[in-house]
Specification:
mainly alpha, Endonuclease Iii, domain 2, Endonuclease III, domain 1
Amino acid sequence: MSNATGITPVGRIIETPACVAEGAAWLAAAEPRFARALERTGPLPLRRRQDGFRPLLSAIVSQQVSVAAADAIWARLETARLTGPRAIVVASDEELRACGLSRQKIRYARALAQARLPYRSLRDASDEEVVAALVEVPGIGRWTAEIYAMFSLGRADVFAPADLALQEAARLLFELEARPTERELREMAAPWSPWRAVAARLLWAYYRVAKEREGIR
């Protein structure tokens, strides 16, 4: 449980827009390119979500499809009331496919529904413990686990360097010759600690204004 400063035994937790603004100010002071990016993006979004089954299912839905396509699939799942673990288990493949899920994503959704992850205890686990627990579930890779840690658990210092929009935004903002690899971007992001999750928000926002499209749901 966090205290009034948003600090927990597992590190800083982003809970309010003021937390994001604090991180953005720190990044702007540490890196002039971030300061210039903020002039274009304006205030950064909070992007906090509930934790538990739904956001992980949503992340699986979002894998390897556009933001618009993911939104459409999720809307159909909600309309069909197929966003809870029990509903996923009892639904037929045909019902799930009608909502837009591929055969592979149906398998992943069922694996998640049957995994019985300890969602409450993950709130107090370290960032790496969260990632390690989540990637045990088929269909959840490190990217999905890091997105969950960032947005559903509010971890302030988690980054997702495998994200293509983050890689492209970093290329544009830092005027790199090529899009950085996951490893290169992870190393590049090290100096942005302890606010790497805010750096991700800033890069996604910069991607949106530079490319005129959303980088993440």
